[in-house]
Specification:
alpha/beta; 27 strands; 24% helix; elongated; RNA-binding
RNA sequence: UGGGGUAUCGCCAAGUGGUAAGGCAAUGGAUUCUGAUUCCAUCAUGCGCAGGUUCGAAUCCUGCUACCCUAGCCA
């Protein structure tokens, strides 16, 4: 991979360039990827991961992996292994692996500091009451009756909160800012809540937990993060981010939050809620179901980390909401795979072909290159004999115009073998095709000259006697929208079929990728393959194929 | 606009007052024992709209319009 040189710049780089020029952070660039461990990472996270890690890389800086585990009721350590695996698989290494929960003491100290400065107070209002007094988008809120408690009283109450004297929801700590602020986030936001819940990291040490808006700036500042990159919906929270740090005045310089637009891809569900729902109700095999847009799903489907990184590079980073076409991701995989993958003959929807003038007891081993564009990948041999299978799409009894594959009376090149002419179509009683009776021209053997005649089409085939049955799974869109605009599972999102492949395919190991002649790219699914039957997941089809025009 | 954002080709996206990069998609053509790949060519007198400033505007000013975010003790 060509590193650095032609990496496009974006508005975040422009901000960093200015910071470097002004010396704001002494030329340092320190970023972080802060997932909440409440689900698997998806392609949208990949954009954020690439952005944070490559930005640090570009400037010779560092990037931390930090779990944003400030809400024990929603989080689960079961996800951390997958998160780390996915980041590593994408090819990134973090500077430090950290847990926001390790900063709970420092955050508590910060809250105490705010109380002492009269900038925070303990509020006894219920969640409902807080909502009711917050005002609306157009009307200011009302001040809490507890807003003017003394510093001493607040200190006492907050200590009691920490000591576990109160039940969940009984009290909260609020920042004392401005109930009339046009920005609702500044209307005395809750910064600490009570939750008598076991925390995976701190156990039962704490029963009060900081809210994201208060915790996140502290986490960044503690780690010395310079540029805290997050998505657009946090734009309105930035004043609170800055307020928290400004009030404390503990750090100089302070990190700055920069927002960018999250990734959307056409026909792709990116909502964690929906994805988790599909996993929980058994609609998919799990978070790594090949139909899922999770990194684990894409991996199992056969996408490469290089392709995903290339995709993230190409989509750019900006603040405009956008939806990238799936075709771009597909282009990236195709481009990556075409030079690293060997081709194998697999026929879908097989039709039997009998070469009537070929000896019944003869079998030839014909040479075939693994990848025509990459000679270093060498070649292989495949058996050829009197009975073969061809792809259902490569024969038309009544050809449409410009169809140049097999049809009665037409002659085509069998890839790596001979010119074959279809002489007769033999049918079953029910009218379906039983077999094609064909003849071959011995003078046209592949690689042995005989360039006299030309033929328009080349099709692939497998030897019937040695063919291996494999299962092929092809994927469509996971979700569709119904009349009500509700997203629901697409019943046709997976199609499984049995196909015939050349014998060598039986040596495929889980994770091996191939190009199936004329069908596209496929990966051997180690999770579903057995010794007797291999399952191949489709990654992506070829760029274009013959389309029948009406 | 309560407030905060964003508008440049079908989809992304550069551009930061000097006369519209690039990629994907699409379309034509060349080569091809994969209708793939590769290769060449075409693809915004135009930058949400309307005015204004300027020798010169996607870039500055004014006024509109559309869409997104925001009223969790989630992140």
């Amino acid at each position: 991979m060509s590193e650095n040189e032609n990496k496009s710049s974006n508005f975040i780089h422009n901000i960093i360039d200015k910071d470097i020029e002004s010396g704001k952070y002494g030329g340092e660039v320190y970023t972080r990827f802060p997932p909440e461990p409440n689900g698997y990472l998806h392609i949208g996270h990949a954009k954020s991961i690439c952005l944070n890690f490559t930005t640090a890389e570009k400037y010779g800086g560092r990037c931390n992996l930090r779990y944003d585990d400030t809400n024990p009721v929603k989080e689960d350590v079961e996800y951390v292994d997958s998160i780390e695996e996915d980041i590593k698989w994408l090819g990134f290494s973090w500077d430090k692996k950290l847990w926001a929960s390790d900063y709970f003491p420092k955050m508590y100290e910060a809250a105490v500091e705010l109380i002492k400065k009269g900038e925070a107070y303990v509020c006894d209002l219920s969640a409902d009451e807080i909502r009711e007094t917050r005002g609306t988008l157009k009307e200011p809120g009302k001040e809490s009756p507890y807003r003017n408690r003394t510093v001493e009283e607040n200190m006492q109450l907050f200590k009691e909160m920490k000591a576990g004297k109160y039940k969940d929801g009984e009290k909260v700590l609020r920042a004392k800012i401005d109930m009339a602020s046009p920005n609702i986030n500044m209307r005395d936001p809750v910064i600490y809540r009570i939750a008598h819940v076991e925390h995976h990291n701190t156990g039962s040490e704490w029963c009060i937990y900081p809210m994201y808006d208060f915790a996140h700036p502290l986490e960044d500042a503690i780690e010395g993060i310079t540029h805290s990159i997050c998505t657009l919906e946090f734009e309105d929270h930035r004043p609170l981010y800055d307020w928290s740090l400004d009030q404390l005045g503990w750090w100089d310089p302070q990190p700055q939050q920069i927002e960018f637009a999250r990734l959307n891809i056409t026909n792709t569900v990116m909502s964690k809620r929906l994805l988790k729902g599909l996993v929980d109700d058994g609609s998919v095999e799990g978070w790594d179901d090949p139909r899922m847009p999770t990194i684990a799903g894409l991996r199992r489907r056969g996408y490469t980390p290089e392709a995903i990184r290339d995709f993230c590079e190409r989509i750019g980073v900006a603040k405009a909401n956008s939806t990238v076409e799936m075709a771009l991701l597909e282009h990236c995989v195709r481009e990556d795979l075409q030079s690293r993958v060997a081709s194998r003959n697999v026929v879908f929807d097989p039709i039997k072909v009998v070469i009537t003038n070929y000896p019944e007891d003869k079998t030839e081993e014909l040479a075939m290159e693994n990848n025509r564009n990459v000679p270093e990948m060498g070649g292989r041999t495949v058996p050829f004999s009197r009975e073969l299978y061809v792809d259902g799409a490569d024969f038309m009894e009544v050809p449409v115009k410009k169809y140049f594959r097999l049809f009665p009376g037409n002659e085509v090149r069998f890839k790596g073998a001979y010119f074959i002419k279809c002489e007769e179509v033999v049918k079953n009683d029910d009218g379906t095709i039983k077999e094609l009776r064909c003849t071959y021209d011995p003078a046209t053997k592949s690689g042995e000259g005989g360039e006299g005649r030309k033929v328009k089409g080349t099709i692939h085939w497998v030897d019937a006697a040695s063919a291996v049955a494999i299962k092929v799974r092809e994927y469509g869109y996971l979700m569709v929208e119904d009349e009500q605009g509700e997203e629901r599972l697409n019943p046709d999102s997976v199609k499984e079929m049995t196909c015939y492949a050349e014998p060598l395919i039986s040596e495929a190991k889980g994770g091996d990728r191939f190009q199936f002649f004329r069908h596209g790219y496929y990966i051997a699914d180690s999770k579903l393959s057995t010794d007797t039957e291999k399952v191949f997941n489709s990654i992506i089809g070829l760029k274009s194929s013959f389309k029948i025009k009406k």
